[in-house]
Task: structure prediction
Amino acid sequence: MKYVFGPVFSRRLGLSLGVDLVPHKVCSMDCLYCEAGKTTEKTLKRAEYVPFDAVKAELEEFLSYEPDIDYITFSGYGEPTLFSRLGELVHYIKENYPYRIALLTNGSLLHRDEVLEEIRKVDVVLPSLDAVTQEVFEKINRPVSGLTTEMVIEGIEKLIKMGTSEVWIETLFVKGINDTEEEIEKLGEAIHRLKPHRWQLNTVARPPAYEIKGLSFEELERVKRKVGYPATEIIAHSKARRKKMPISEIKKEIYNLVTRRPCPVDEIASALGILDEEAERAVEELLQEKKVEEVLFGSTPYIKGKV
Ligand code: SF4
Result:
């Protein structure tokens, strides 16, 4: 499958079937921390970047097995709302299947009414909001020219007012960039005003696109205490679901996972719900086949897919 991947066990969504709606690496931002690598096409132009019929056919095939998944999630290599037929896809899924839909977005297009209309039936929208001041926004998210933090905040506000989806705002903290007292205060004010269903604090936990450092768990806890928003959570790792899979299938799933999100071997095992030994064996074979590589982040080896 080319556009549908997983299901993978995600920290926030449980067992989630991923759908890629833009190719590597089309995005309206080029975030310092991006796990999918540096953006090669920075744009706000919406287009059918991947063929709608092919995505639909892959979904049809996968969902014909009636898998026990928690979400179908639009995520992957870049910004999913850039896909111009997103609304049709949401409609198709909701008309034909019982699954919940999640959308991971950088929020850059949520201020547009037609985009909000298209995602009206999405169950959970997870927009990022890493900065409130334009200067910090430009440093951390490196947006396409003309995109402002006001536009992102306005979009999230409109989405919350529309009231059709749960909204979980994610803020990813990068050391020395958006963790100043002043920025945290402003972020806190914005969060208290927007009132998302959840505010999720994250930090750099996988090999990022650029040389940066994350915050410790204690530092994130301090942010949480300082802002004092009741529905705040520091994103933590989830427990695995165990399932039996042939090695060829495991290798395919690992490759799909680590080309989007580099992971240490134990996290791969958790994400796929397999035993550590199974993950180790499959990774070993993928390394020999040169389909993946090992990169060090801090002192931890991560497995990263070669695209
Ligand atoms: S983290 Fe998301 S918004 Fe930022 S560059 Fe990567 S895909 Fe784009």
Q: What stands out?
A: Residues 247-305 form a domain with the Arc Repressor Mutant, subunit A fold (CATH 1.10.10.10). The chain has ten helices and twelve strands. The two ends are 15 Å apart (CA to CA).
